[in-house]
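#structure-requests
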Amino acid sequence: MADIVADLSTLCFESGLADDEKKLLYLRARSAGLIFCGCAIRRRTAKIRKPVAPGEHDDLRVGILGLGHLGKQLCLALLEKTKIKPSHIKISTRRPELAVEFVHTEVECFFDNRRLAAWADVLFLCCLPSQIPKVCVDLRSHLAKHCLVYSFTSAIPVTRLAKLLGHDYILKPKYDVVSCDTVDVWLSCSHVASALADPLLIEASCPLTMKGGISLGLNWVCAVLYILLNICTSASLGSSEALLLIKSIFKEKCGDTVQLNAHSFINSSYASSLLSDEPFPWISLMDAQIRETPLLRFLSSSKSVQQCLSAAYKSQMETPAK
């Protein structure tokens, strides 16, 4: 459909702004950047899955709570840029009848937060901060112990969210934003699924080398690696096998140069007594995001490992999801 106001400048959004208000237009680019980074990183997080034990379902089940702009962009990105089956994506929204983009897919839309919580392996919270208390009441006691809750609600600290949910397996990015001259890089990502193929935006969204006035700390990266470790623990993999699997993330770009061992993840006394066929202990995601962990110290002291992590992220973003 043609845009009938395309050439009518007086009807454009900017035309109604005073000169001092136009200085705030960078906020539009920043908002687009946060949505893109959130969907890009969530795209990788959504595919985290433990090895399957006999009798378990073998496909990741993804729940999206909230179908505003962010929820829609996330769902479209998962459908177009990953191999998660549409039938394994469900959405809970107050207005399921408005989910017209997904009518011809197998994505199921309904309004039942408890049902979604009980079903999902990964649950993305895409609701407004004002809705969080009510949402948490719905979800509380319905989340499986190992269901990963990913929150993009920046106004609610992860510790507060854990108390509201009665659930501590939560991952929440903590973005820092600063003024800069490159914020306009995000203006080209109005459609996230298409933008995820743009090398410039992939580069800008890399967690350890973010651009465009947005940055994400090492604690978040540590939390993601601890999630991978927990997946191995839940599958009863020995520590040696778990380390091999995690090292495989870096192997394509960095070979065997990344020297990860048990001491990189857990305290020295525990690591020294850990047998090769013994699983790692379960790691608290709360601690990983708010405290100094052995992994945080290791990554902070190794720029080469940080570079390998960045290279691995870019490589996975630029190749089809497996």
